[in-house]
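Figure S4 source data
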Amino acid sequence: MFAPGDFVTLNGRLGVVVPMPVQPGADLDDHAAVWFGDTEQGRPEIWTVPAEYLCAGPLPIVQH
């Protein structure tokens, strides 16, 4: 399973795993919340994706 901060890919798109938002009544134990860099009306658009669909992403280049 992936943890917040992990980079992942889905269908060639790079994303980062974020903390799972609270979804009352949803069974999301086998899912990860992923941000692919998209926003909707200035707010980050987070997707919940079955973890089995995700692949580990590349290691980031860290710069300061």
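Figure S5 source data
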Amino acid sequence: MRVQEMFYLVNCALESWVDPIFNERKNRSGEISAYYCKNAAALVALLEPLKPFPEIKQQIDIIYSTDDTFYKGTPGALTPDEKSKISMASQKIKSSLLVMQSMCEALGLERDSTGFDIKLPPNMTLSELSQCTRDLDNAFSKCPLLNSKEEEVRLRGVDVGSMWLTFTIIGACAATGFYIAKNLAAMVSHVMTIRNQAAVCKQYEELVRQSKLKNDQLAKIIESNQAVVKELTHNIARQLATENSITEPEKVEQIRVSLDILKEWTDKGMEVYAAVEAPKEIKGAFPPLEMQALPDSMMKELNAHREEDE
């Protein structure tokens, strides 16, 4: 988990914090016979997102174990000892959250803003990292879809939990239509389409290799598949240009180049997402994790024979 994501979850939990509220049940003699957690559902909603934190999960398990149906938000009767366990575990969770919040603030983390995060490919060499950043700089500095007079992309920092580059878009708001973020999301979505088509072509090429056809036949198939992917990329570039009223051929070509850059690095495992606290309309525009994350087998397939194919 990214530190920024952890900071976000911690802040959300503290901002919506609820202490358990108990109602008493008394017997005929007026003695307390049981307790009921009045706001169990709200407590469960608060705790569920915090399960990724091991220390906090231990306390959540204590709360949930006090009654078989507590995790459903509708606990049964609680003994005084169970009530005490819930209250104590709840306070330990809150204390842990406050410590984590202070730690993140001490590290210089700030509340997120409109922007995007790029998860770099795994196991990169220094040379690959240098090339990746140069390619990304080329895409963001020259692509007309990723440039706006009202908005500016700035590198905010590096996050851990894999390696992430975090970017802020200065000036982005509803008034600008979140121009850069929405266009980036559209480009990434289209890159997923191109990548899927390329994967299908690669699968076919591998079947041809296994059938041991002649080299010239294989070369023709590879050339044909490359033409299919290239034409698809050109069509998407023209479509994106039309949607953004871009007509200059050189700008359309730069969109295509930027699509190629994004595809090359997503083939190697790069992923692009909206910032953790980006507006919902921006988050919803980016392809979800299950669409972007590449299985190792597909990554190897897309990158296999890359040099000889090119």
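The two ends are 37 Å apart (CA to CA). The CA atoms of residues 92 and 262 lie 45 Å apart.
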